[in-house]
Amino acid sequence: QPASQPAAESSVAETAEAVVPVSDDVARERLILFLPGCPLVIELRMTIDGRPFAAAREELVDDALKLADRDGDGRPTWEEIYSDPKRVFAERFDVRTRNVMHKEFLRTYDTNQNGLIDREEARRIVSRAKSTGDAFSLAGSTQYRHSNRRDSIIRIMLDANDDEVLDAAELTAAAQRLRARDANDDHLVSWGELDDSLAGDEQAMSARQNAYLNQPAALRLGKRASWDGILYALAELYLAGDQIPDDASPLFKSLADRLDANHDGTLTSEEVRSLDTLEPHLILAANFGRTGDLLAGISLVEVCEDLGPEGDLVAHLPNGLLLRLPDYRLRMVLDDRQSAAGQAPAQTQFEMLDKDKNGYLEKDETGDSAPQLARIFDEADTDSDGKLYMNELLAYQRRQQPRATAIRALVNDDQDVLFPLLDANHDGRLTKRELQAAADVLLALDTDDDGQITLAELPGSMTLWLGRGVPMGASPTARMAAMPPPAPTGPDWFVYMDENRDQEISLDEFPGTAEKFRSLDLDGDGFVSVSEALSSGD
To answer: What burial class does residue 472 get, using C-beta atoms within 10 Å of its C-beta: 0-12 exposed, 13-18 middle, 19+ buried?
Structure first.
């Protein structure tokens, strides 16, 4: 068996169970979502590579403090960074030391003017490096709340006679009208093909992005809570002054009763602060990266009984969950842009260089064949024993990618209430199957059974998006519109034919005969799925 590093990092699978039950400040975040009728309290339990999410950021902070302590006296100072001729710290964390006067440098970075880099200063430096952002951040908007029914791009497109009602003929023509927007003929209709403002109209996109900064749809609870903002939102949206209205929704009355400690029918600022300890409406687990024994993606841990039976409320999506409330839909999706894709090439290179197969590399094994690895050998060899283990190399790679330690939450009312309804797998694209089902999906909204859909029958919709690896300054609209397609799965021939990555093949995509296609389409629904392809044995 190859040697392993004695006391270094153990594998994710070995540590996952041990590290998750830790203090809330590194493992959990609480949000309050301002839905129409009632706010929802959501607790997020998040991990990165099987560990509490904030632990990954604290590793980078430790690394920053170590790099700043050039003389090894245990006192990292700003002077050591400024005077470093190699600019190791400055290059790693985008700190300006060149062409900057000494006094200006200290005034900019040494916020408490004590000469030392304390932990909070190091956290700030890491968060600013390479547009990384905080370990967890939240933004949101209710910009489309009062317009996403009437101004729905899909509703307007289907409403041929412009009477704000989708009648039987318009519903029947829905698939054809939507399919006509498939600009690149890939048998998919993306949001970008529907929304003309994403086609380069910079002025429209800028205005939309600025509007996004107003009217938050969610705020943080806990240590980083803005209680003035929370109190204002509650008063504006749900209360009559500080009074609990008689006509409040049952869900809000239940929440207000739990907050109203003295049962006087009003909510004081102190009572509202108990949102921090109150049983949340939803507890979600969100696991990023290499999850080990943990469930990858986003999953439901617990649902408050006030919301009703879990089976009636929650539907599972390929990349998240859907909460179905009366007249409202809440999507909760996870988008990991910082995958472990770099691990496989590193593993392959490591094994090629490890000629004696002892499980670690020595400096002379890197040599001319891997000059880049030779350059970073000493820095990656964290215990300075002259042996570079695979887990040390992976840890070094993680330190070079600070955005891999940043989770961003976005909460906003969807721009178009119909798109999430038609996009059954919520991957941001309408597939051929989803287009064929469009008329039936829309007709299901006909609550009075008159064969047509009015504005009042359209449910509102909101998305809670949890993403990792996205630059801090990226446009919220662009992030929501550009969800990456799922990784290809299935036999090689299936992956080759599935060019649009919708996880199924229609007859239009199939290069063989119709007879052969029918033999593969076991359920006769007009599509060959991944499971049917695997069952074929070809």
So the answer is: middle
Q: Is 436 exposed, middle or buried (0-12, 13-18, 19+ CB in 10 A)?
A: middle
Q: Which two tokens stand for residue 221?
A: 């609870």
* Spatial CB neighbours of 153, under 8 Å, sequence gap ≥ 6: 194, 195, 415, 416, 419
Q: Which two tokens stand for residue 126?
A: 């890491």
Cα separation, 78 vs 173, whole angstroms: 67
Residue 283 — left, alpha, or beta (φ > 0 → left; ψ -120 to 50 → alpha)? beta
Could you tell me where the beta strands, DSSP code E, fall in 326-389?
A: 328-336, 360-361, 388-389
Asked if 366 and 374 count as a contact pair (C-beta separation under 8 A), the reply is yes
Lowest average pLDDT, out of 4-8, 12-16, 413-417, goes to: 12-16
Three-state DSSP class for 356? coil
Could you give phi then psi for residue 309, rounded to 5 degrees? -60, 135
User: For residues 334 and 318, is the Cβ–Cβ distance under 8 A?
Assistant: no
- DSSP-derived letter for residue 433 is H
Say how far residue 99 (Cα) sits from the centre of its chain.
Answer: 38
Helices 390-399 & 53-68 angle (0-180, nearest 10): 90
Compute the distance between CA of residue 407 and CA of residue 333 in angstroms, rounded to an integer: 13
- Predicted confidence (pLDDT) per residue in 454-513, tens digit: 999 999 999 999 988 876 665 544 444 455 566 667 888 888 888 777 788 888 888 889
Torsion angle (degrees, nearest 10) of CA 108, 114, 118, 123: -10
What does DSSP assign to residue 404?
G
Model's pTM, two decimal places?
0.78
> Do 282 and 320 touch, CB atoms closer than 8 A?
no
For the chain, the maximum distance between any two Cα atoms, rounded to a whole number of angstroms, is 79
Q: What is the model's pLDDT at position 353?
A: 82
Distance of CA 345 to the CA centre of its chain: 25
Residue type, 446: D
pLDDT tens digits, one per residue of 185-242:
888 898 888 887 655 444 444 444 444 446 789 999 999 999 999 999 999 999 998 8
Between CA 27 and CA 222 the distance in angstroms is 13
Strands 460-468, 328-336: parallel, antiparallel or unpaired by DSSP?
Answer: parallel
The owner of tokens 């630059």 is 471
DSSP one-letter code for 164: S
For the stretch 283-302, pLDDT in tens is 999 999 878 788 888 999 99
**pLDDT above 80: residue 399:** no
Amino acid at 345: P
Phi-psi region at 155: left, alpha or beta (left = phi > 0; alpha = psi -120 to 50): alpha
Cβ(49)–Cβ(290) under 8 Å? yes
The helix (H) or strand (E) run that includes residue 344 is: helix 343-353
